[in-house]
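Worked problem 6 (solution included).
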Amino acid sequence: MNSRLAGLLALGLCIWSAQAADKAFHLKEGDRVVFYGDSITDQRLYTTFTETYAVTRFPKMNVTFVHSGWGGDRVSGGGGGKIETRLERDVFAYKPTVMTIMLGMNDASYRPFDQGIFATYTNGYTKIIESAKSAFPNLRITVIQPSPFDDVTRPPNFEGGYNAVLLRYGQFVKELAEQKNLTFADLNTGVVEATKKADAVDHENAVKLNQDRVHPGPGGQLLMAAELLKAWNAPALVSHVEINASTKKANGQRTTVTMTDGDGVLNWTQMDEALPMHVDLKDPVVALAIKSSDFMEALNQQTLKITDLPAGNYSLSIGNESVGEFTAEALAKGINLAALNTPMTAQAAQVHRYTLQHNEIHFHRWRNVQLKVSSDLPTLEPALKALDALEEDIVKLQRRTAQPNKREYKLQKAEQNI
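Solution. The predicted structure is:
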């Protein structure tokens, strides 16, 4: 087993055990979430990762998600219209109960800090909050510190660098959250820290976390999603199972475990309450992001611990699929199934494909039909309704696929050494 995978499999002293019992997850039954922002939100990456996490971790919870970013936007609006138009059409129309706002990358104008530009930002941002609260007094708003401009893997363009400017904008966002009792999410600091760690070990792929320095790719945006989810008190635990090989006694958390008869050293069925978060570890940039952060420990723990096994190597299979080979020592310490290719991670990947699919339908319905086709055409409204119905069907598939299945596990002696 290579060192990267071994690190991902480590339990990290089960960080989830203290966190999970601490605070409730920010989203709740019946919520309608609208993600609002500029081109970084318009990429529909950190937002779709966040959606897939919620759908797979809480498969019984009914929450809807709308992704309303627009490239080039500032607090005054942009290519999609003035801020009043953007809010009415792209946020308020969906009657949100939860709204996230990430603006600032364009507002700060890619130059050294300027007090006049900053004042425009602070005044405009405050007005967005006031407008949203006026329209929906109970709206739960999460304000997001702007994600970083990459001054880590390449030298700054001017003294101090542009990300230092964004940090000043982020400090205002944090103070505004405190003043107005909003949720605050820092999508800058943790991402920068992970980028520094990544750059120290693999500069070539670290650059690809944020290739153009502004718009992070999937690896960078997965780190961003992690910071938003942490701000929302997202639990790390998918499921946790402990089995004593001598007594064949099992216990679990967020799962039902039943020991069964079979030809393995141990056989059992497991019905988890959730799926792991989809993470594409075959992508070297995503894998580097995971290695350089606490993503798996903080958000993706599907743990299996088997004690009192005789020394040796063991093969684990789930259903008809081989998952891997492990030493008795590794199993006694515990392994994280979320970091392996399992039927559950494959199922979660399919959920994410449906997440992307329904969001693509919504995007084209919004940007290419609703905003571009003449409203005089009598077929426009039926077309919009048909696209809405198609998206709803994909969401139903997404939710159906997110429901966990009972799985059969078998542990047996490995034929060869690892």
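Discussion: Confidence is low (pLDDT under 50) at residues 1-8, 10-21.
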